[in-house]
């Protein structure tokens, strides 16, 4: 079994984890917190211990092991470094993206080091932490690779500034394992003996959590958000119930070195500890080097966007026709010129453009101004707008067309040449401007609402076409005091609706950091929320093979109209997929009755022995227990010993590991439709017991 050196640099399937306050508290209890640190154990004003980070992405260690093909018989968690970017919220979803960054060779008989690096993001869009995890493969050295660069930590030759004693409970691993690391070595006395230990041992990361509490207590009491970096090497195992002390030396401003000592035998359990702390460096979103076009930037919202983009380093094309509120008149250079003067006198860079977005030539000329003056275009805010309100019957074609020409066609005219530039360079951010009137309706604005909602349709497809080129397109529905709203909004509200309340969201959507594409946000007065088109689960109304009757619609209207369990689709194909799936009830598919493959869980186990690979089973003595839930499911196990395999229904009393899955997912995985790694990282496949041994399944059975 050789290391897979090709794994270096290849990204893992992203790992997602939903968590809430109970996970946070369970972790805190698992690493010894209690009443004296209630902030970490009580949902009221709950805080998160920073080392919760690595416990929550524990599966990444498995991924590093699986992808590198490390010999599991000799695997150890060698070192762990965590870099904290933002405080960890008490609930949400974490998404971790990572890769194996290096595989080092320490030489024949001296082992190998596999380094996995990952970044974890919160569902709030913030990057939470970076993990650099070193797995030591005792049995994998000597493949002719390079050794790791030396990275010694020199401790001061003096007594530590702090020495914090703690005694993990003899039952500590039983609590800690509930945070994710359910490896048998920490719970099963027989397994521990088989592995050469007297009894189950502490999780290294549990001791790490005790150390993190000690470090916080001494250096940043009550302020976990001030942890910036925590790194260490796991050097010795520890039995639960043995007292430990965390020794801490303050070495620099915001930096300390630390180690954890076993107080019974004075062994160093965790060594080379580094802890850095301080305020989160203030991050300013900048647009240096970026070229932005803002249409209709001579007044109102567009002006506010242009000023702030320039203040944050962008070079701005300030487009404005300078016409009347209803678009009439021959236009004026004054509004655009005025904004350019404001920008340049504040030290920014900008150029005026007076073209009309309502024409093809106007759109091209606006983009040309950006190219001629600044050489490119990175950002486009389609903002120009007019109003011609009338109730529908009085809405003459002239007023209808004028409004569609500026809002809808205007966005098309400017976006098309800008998109071509962005596509060629592989980067772009576009913001459309819709309106609550378009999203929800407003009396007397049929022209305007039709145009505004059409912009959402334009975004929906552009987001798909732009995805491959890192072009992200989003939409804002602003509410702001401006020429367009001065006679619509009551005067007291008008004062509270400065365009500057809208600017942050619109500019965030133009930033390099913007993680989303295809989203719509209502923004105004310091309030933002997301709007979306959602679709209910619906109902099948066709009886058998025939067409439905009108009465079938009436009979099913409740279900058809219900938005309970509604979801948002990323594209048409997702919706068509659900349409097709509506005719394949889940439970039947799982049982294999309606499954187009016709394969059931029982069929798979009946046939599994035929796929056994005896040559891959030399020296292997394992029992894999399968607990398959749902229709067609049941319990089966495979016992592998002396290069032979028995497949039996029922439960084994000493499985090496247990795999739990829904029947439908199991069939999908075993028929190649659901990759095992994806099933595992998405939580569809849960493995208990000796997780590392489950890696053998792929080698022992070739399906
Ligand atoms: P505004 O009237 O202050 O600014 C719009 C600017 O667009 C004006 O300076 C105008 O000269 C320019 N413009 C009009 N037609 C143009 C054309 N054909 N070519 C180039 N420039 C042209 O209005 P405001 O409120 O700042 O509106 C900005 C955008 O936000 C518009 O698309 C509007 O529909 C949208 N909006 C505004 C809301 C609000 O509460 N202010 C509510 C919902 C949407």
Describe it.
The chain is of the alpha/beta class. It has 3 domains: about 10-145 and about 150-275, Hotdog Thioesterase (Thiol Ester Dehydrase, Chain A, Roll); about 290-530, 3-Layer(aba) Sandwich (Rossmann fold), CATH 3.40.50.720; about 600-700, SCP2 sterol-binding domain (Nonspecific Lipid-transfer Protein, Chain A), CATH 3.30.1050.10. The strands form 3 sheets. It has a 10-stranded antiparallel β-sheet with strand order 1-3-4-5-2-7-10-9-8-6. The chain has an 8-stranded mixed β-sheet with strand order 13-12-11-14-15-16-17-18, sandwiched between helices. A hairpin with a 5-residue loop joins strand 9 and strand 10 (about 270-275). Helix 9 runs parallel beside helix 10 (about 395-425). The longest helix has 29 residues, at about 395-425. The protein is globular and about 90 Å long. Residues about 585-595 have low confidence and may be disordered.
List descriptors:
single chain, 703 residues, alpha/beta, Thiol Ester Dehydrase, Chain A, Rossmann fold, Nonspecific Lipid-transfer Protein, Chain A, 3 domains, 10-stranded antiparallel sheet, 8-stranded mixed sheet, 21 helices, 23 strands, 30% helix, globular, binds 1,4-dihydronicotinamide adenine dinucleotide
Gap between N and C termini: 20 Å
| Portion in beta strands | 15-25%
Main beta sheet: 10 strands, antiparallel
Helix content: 25-40%
User: Unreliable segments (pLDDT under 50, ≥5 consecutive)?
Assistant: 587-595
Q: CATH homologous superfamily of the largest domain - what is it?
A: Hotdog Thioesterase
Class of the largest domain in CATH?
Alpha Beta
CATH fold category name of the largest domain: Thiol Ester Dehydrase, Chain A
Proper CATH architecture of the largest domain: Roll
Strand arrangement, major sheet:
1-3-4-5-2-7-10-9-8-6
């Amino acid at each position: 079994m050789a290391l897979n050196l090709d794994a270096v640099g290849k990204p893992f399937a992203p790992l997602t984890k939903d968590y809430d306050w109970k996970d946070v508290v369970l972790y805190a209890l698992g690493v010894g917190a209690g009443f004296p640190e209630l902030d970490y154990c009580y949902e009221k004003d709950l805080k998160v211990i920073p080392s919760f980070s690595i416990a929550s992405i524990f599966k990444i260690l498995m991924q590093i092991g699986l992808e590198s093909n490390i010999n599991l018989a000799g695997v150890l968690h060698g070192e762990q470094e965590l870099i904290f970017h933002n405080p960890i919220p008490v609930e949400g979803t974490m998404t971790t993206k990572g890769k194996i960054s290096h595989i080092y060779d320490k030489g024949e008989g001296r082992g190998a080091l596999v380094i996995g690096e990952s970044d974890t993001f919160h569902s709030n869009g913030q990057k939470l932490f970076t993990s650099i995890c070193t797995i030591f493969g005792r049995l994998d050295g000597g493949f002719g690779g390079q050794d790791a660069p030396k990275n010694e930590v020199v401790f001061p030759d003096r007594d530590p500034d702090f020495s914090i004693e703690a005694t993990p409970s003899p039952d500590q691993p039983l609590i800690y394992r509930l945070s994710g690391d359910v490896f048998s070595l920490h719970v099963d006395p027989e397994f521990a003996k088989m592995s050469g230990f007297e009894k189950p041992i502490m999780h290294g990361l549990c001791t790490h959590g005790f150390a993190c509490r000690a470090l916080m207590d001494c250096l940043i009491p009550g302020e976990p958000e001030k942890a910036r970096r925590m790194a260490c090497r796991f050097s010795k195992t520890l039995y639960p119930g043995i007292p430990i002390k965390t020794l801490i030396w303050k070495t620099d401003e915001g930096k300390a070195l630390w180690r954890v000592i076993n107080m019974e035998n004075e062994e160093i359990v965790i060594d080379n500890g580094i802890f850095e702390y301080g305020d989160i460096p203030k991050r300013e979103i900048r647009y240096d080097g970026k070229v932005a076009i803002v249409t209709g930037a001579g007044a109102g919202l567009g002006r506010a966007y242009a000023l702030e983009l320039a203040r944050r380093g962008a070079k701005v094309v300030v487009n404005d026709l300078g016409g009347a509120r209803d678009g009439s008149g021959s236009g004026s250079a004054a509004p655009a010129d005025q904004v350019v003067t404001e920008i340049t006198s504040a030290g920014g860079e900008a150029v005026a453009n007076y073209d009309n977005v309502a024409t093809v030539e106007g759109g091209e000329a606006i983009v040309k101004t950006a190219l001629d003056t600044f050489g490119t275009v990175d950002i486009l805010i389609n903002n120009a707008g007019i109003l011609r309100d009338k109730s529908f019957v009085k809405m003459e074609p002239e007023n209808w067309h004028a409004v569609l020409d500026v809002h809808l066609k205007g966005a098309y005219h400017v976006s098309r040449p800008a998109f071509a530039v962005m596509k060629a360079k592989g980067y772009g951010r576009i913001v459309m401007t819709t309106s609550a009137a378009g999203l929800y309706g407003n009396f007397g604005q049929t022209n305007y609402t039709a145009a505004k909602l059409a912009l959402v349709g334009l975004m929906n497809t552009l987001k798909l076409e732009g995805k491959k080129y890192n072009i992200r397109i989003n939409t804002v529905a602003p509410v702001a005091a401006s020429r367009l709203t001065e006679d619509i909004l009551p005067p007291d509200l008008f004062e509270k609706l400065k365009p500057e309340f809208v600017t942050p969201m619109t500019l965030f959507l133009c930033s390099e950091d913007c993680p989303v594409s295809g989203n719509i946000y209502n923004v105004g007065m310091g309030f933002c929320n997301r709007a979306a088109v959602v679709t209910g689960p619906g109902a099948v109304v066709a009886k058998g093979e025939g067409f439905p009757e009108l009465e079938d619609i009436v009979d099913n209207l409740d279900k058809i109209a219900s938005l309970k369990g509604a979801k948002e689709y990323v594209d048409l194909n997702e919706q068509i997929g659900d349409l097709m799936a509506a005719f394949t009830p889940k439970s039947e598919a799982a049982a294999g009755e309606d499954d187009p493959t016709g394969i059931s869980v029982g069929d798979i186990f009946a046939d599994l022995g035929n796929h056994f690979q005896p040559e891959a089973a030399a020296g292997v003595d394992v029992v894999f227990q399968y607990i398959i839930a749902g229709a067609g499911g049941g319990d089966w196990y495979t016992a592998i010993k002396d290069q032979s395999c028995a497949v039996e229904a029922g439960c084994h009393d000493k499985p090496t590991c247990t795999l739990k899955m829904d029947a439908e997912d199991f069939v999908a995985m075993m028929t190649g439709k659901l990759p095992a790694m994806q099933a595992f990282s998405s939580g569809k496949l849960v493995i208990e017991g000796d997780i590392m041994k489950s890696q053998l399944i792929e080698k022992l059975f070739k399906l």
